[in-house]
Write a structure and sequence with these properties.
By secondary structure, the chain is α/β, with parallel strands linked by helices. About 40% of the residues lie in helices and about 20% in strands.
Length: about 290
Amino acid sequence: MLEVVETLAEWRAGTEARRRAGATLGLVMTMGGLHAGHASLFARAAASCDVAAATIFVNPQQFGDAADLAAYPRDLAADLAVAEAAGVQLVLAPSLAEVWPSWPEPTATTVHVAELADVLEGEGRPGHFDGVATVVTKLLVATGACTAFFGEKDFQQLCVVRRLVADLALPVEVVGCPIVRDADGLALSSRNARLSAIGRTAARALPASLAAGRAALAEGHGVGAATAAMRDVVAREPLVALAYAAAVEPPTLRAPVDAPPGATVRLLVAGVVEGVRLIDNLAAQVGVAP
């Protein structure tokens, strides 16, 4: 049976009670707008741990655009149904005042993960990852020892969370889970619902660009050729405004100094379609066919 709590005190008590009873805890942090991608994380947590738990909180700290924040989908009843169907047993669904009592005044304390938070999405959305890192840290501290499951679609976020958990010695194991894609290849995202049919078709240029970049690497070309191939694919779709196309070393997110045959890189792309910012990524190996 699904238990829903609204305060951090109730959440802390609930997670601690389950650990005292000998249960392991699997955590999935979300902002709602839940879809099959989230459900896959819930199912992974339920299969891997005794108790699957989730947080549902739209964190304003990580939005630089007030219109983007206002447009973010909010339907708690629908979200709870998705969570329960996927095996979640405990949900934290707090109010804004519960998490950030002083909002819209900034908090005196923020968490910044140097370098990882300053590139790619961090460069295009200043302050975004400070907001992510701060709320993730607060919720992980409130949760206590657990295994936290994050989707690889937000690959940079996954890298940021892994680093902050390691640097702060939090009692958390971070597990990355594969991207879930729709039949047309588009990575599942709560933002996809804001696209028109035409915009959705245009957005397919993003996964297509990743495929082109991976093909270039598989043929033995360098990362420069791979990123050029990615940019070329996006350039052919006028409805997509490219934010970046990059090939990086996981987990540092730095451009590879050298990428010999067999080296693994992560291809990342972001673009704006009909005012909606979309991201995607793909693992690739130099000289190795997928």
